[in-house]
User: Fold this.
Amino acid sequence: AQSVTQLDSHVSVSEGTPVLLRCNYSSSYSPSLFWYVQHPNKGLQLLLKYTSAATLVKGINGFEAEFKKSETSFHLTKPSAHMSDAAEYFCVVISNAGKSTFGDGTTLTVKP
Amino acid sequence: KAGVTQTPRYLIKTRGQQVTLSCSPISGHRSVSWYQQTPGQGLQFLFEYFSETQRNKGNFPGRFSGRQFSNSRSEMNVSTLELGDSALYLCASSLEGFTGELFFGEGSRLTVL
Assistant:
């Protein structure tokens, strides 16, 4: 069985400050890990993915995530938040059998 | 390249009715997945189709069904609608199926009265 835990349901930062969205996973095998972003009334868009290559993954819009197997974590970071980053973020695990499991989501608020 | 297209975008049904939602994947994508998104349950996986075969299934009752056609377009059907079926239904297509990037449509928002 696999599971995903997003440790914060809401994160609020000021514009220009760093962003940290935390994700822990549980999987019986080497999973593929993804971060997706969803803006209001929109579908999800891929930010970045880890598929057993480099442990530090760079994505779009300045986001990056580090895969830490020993901690079973895949936290998402960005050095400087922008107002347009306000959205809901999902951490996703996909097994080698193709089954996807989504975290409950983290709502990011960016204050001016 | 056109993205994933879901129709209809919005619909209202009453309890006991049935509904069919359609998803056209990105050209060349053979895998289509369906998800239900609600404020209380979050995003939940319904099923995944690849080359007209259901390859994975989530934990939903038999009222939820789907199919995929030879052109990779997919439909999902919900019979005997319940109030709790009100949700945003998202479709995603993938080139690779397993471990590939999912490309999402904007969803079909179903309201059951």
